[in-house]
Amino acid sequence: MSDEHAVGSAGDANRVLDGEVGAIARTVGAHLVAAYLVVPDEQLIRMSVVRGVSARIALPWSKVARAAHVPVAEVVRTGRAVWLSDQEELTRRFPRTALAFPYPVAMYVAPLVDERECRGAMLLLWPSTRSPEFGEAEKREIERSCLRATRALRGAAEAGNPARIRLEPLALEPPPRSVGPVSRVVDRLPWGVCALDTEGRLTFISDKARELLDLGDGDLENRNSSGRCPG
């Protein structure tokens, strides 16, 4: 994408942000990318767009308090990127975030920041089997993408048409349930995996977990786990 964007409306800014999320996922090989925007006049950061999972799976992680001890909030507060090379480092620095993921990951979170303010953050995930070294080429690609998105966001705000805050994230290219990037990583694990939201609803269940729990092929996701799982 070009380094300059003529942005004059909220729709333009959202389209640029959506495009950068899709493009950077392909460029650096991240299996999940999400962009978060600061909500003006509120102590919240909301996920605007995600690539790699459906909106339903992303929804429990779509709203973050600015004061929370999680990577996205820290990056917005400080304006500095965070690199977490494996699950051990994620658990050490952000234990609550580590518990939320149903499989080990490597994570990079970059700010959408200019000389005036931080307008949001871009989160990228890879399987934890990737190299622990974060290359300069990868970092430059992500920084350029974030800069283009930030310029678009700033241009729209200065034109009086700030980017629209989505109450539910837009999911780009939602993957089929059993063959998407996340499912492929999970299916390699020797154990079953499921994830719950804060209300005890299943947001993800792997094929191995269905087999171990003797569950059918019906869609159990987004249903309460009470009575469905032992313990």
Describe the overall structure:
The chain is of the alpha+beta class and 231 residues long. It has 2 domains: 163 residues, Beta-Lactamase (2-Layer Sandwich), CATH 3.30.450; 43 residues, no CATH class. The chain is 35% helix and 22% strand. The chain has 8 helices and 9 strands. Strands 1, 2, 3, 4, 5, 6 and 7 form a 7-stranded mixed beta sheet that branches. Strands 8-9 form a two-stranded antiparallel ribbon. Strand 1 and strand 2 form a beta hairpin. Helix 1 packs antiparallel against helix 6. The chain is globular. The protein starts with 9 loop residues before the first helix and ends in a 19-residue tail after the last helix. The N terminus and C terminus are likely disordered.
| Oligomerization | single chain
CATH superfamily of the largest domain: GAF domain
Q: Main beta sheet: strand number and arrangement?
A: 7 strands, mixed
CATH architecture of the largest domain: 2-Layer Sandwich
Using DSSP, what is the number of strands? 9
The CATH topology of the largest domain comes to Beta-Lactamase
The best one-word shape is globular
CATH class call of the largest domain = Alpha Beta
Q: Any idea how many domains? A: 2
Element order, helices and strands? HEEHEHEHHEEHEHEEH
| Content-based structural category | alpha+beta
Span of the ends, CA to CA? 50 Å
- Mean of residue pLDDT values: 82
Enumerate how many helices there are, as a single number. 8
As residue ranges, the low-confidence spans are 1-6, 174-179, 221-231
Radius of gyration in whole Å, from Cα? Answer: 18 Å
